[in-house]
TrEMBL record:
This is Sulfatase N-terminal domain-containing protein. The chain crosses the membrane at residues 85-113. GO terms for molecular function: metal ion binding; sulfuric ester hydrolase activity. Keywords: Calcium, Glycoprotein, Membrane, Metal-binding, Transmembrane, Transmembrane helix. The keyword DNA repair does not apply. InterPro entries: Alkaline_phosphatase_core_sf, ARSB.
């Protein structure tokens, strides 16, 4: 694993989530038969509280500035985790489709042989 040096100005949750998604995709393509343990702690809700402006603006109804930023941090962190979960769901659905297709083919062959 290399040190990231070209992400100045990037929000850390974006960088970590993008890298995690890349790791999961690469694992699904090349190492599917091996287990994958992915630990990704979030820095989003730790000091200093910083969040992209679009997430802070979602909570403009919150009067306290620190709470507004914290709410934006929480929302942003959850969205990034859901992106990773969606990748896993997509992979599982893909595998399920392949398994169901194979079951269908075996049943079709069995019925064909049985009634011939």
């Amino acid at each position: 694993m290399e040190v990231v040096r070209n992400q100045n100005g990037s929000y850390s949750a974006h960088v970590f989530a993008d890298r995690a998604i890349k790791i999961v995709r690469q694992h699904a393509l090349h190492n599917r038969d091996q287990p994958l343990f992915l630990y990704m702690p979030s820095q989003s809700v730790h000091a200093p509280l910083e969040v992209p402006g679009s997430y802070k603006n979602k909570y403009s109804f919150i009067k306290n500035a620190s709470r507004r930023i914290y709410a934006g941090c929480s929302t942003h962190g959850k969205e990034k985790y859901f992106e990773i979960i969606y990748i896993y769901i997509f992979i599982l659905i893909s595998l399920l489709i392949v398994v169901l297709f194979h079951i269908y083919i075996y049943i079709y062959i069995y019925i064909y042989i049985l009634f011939q």
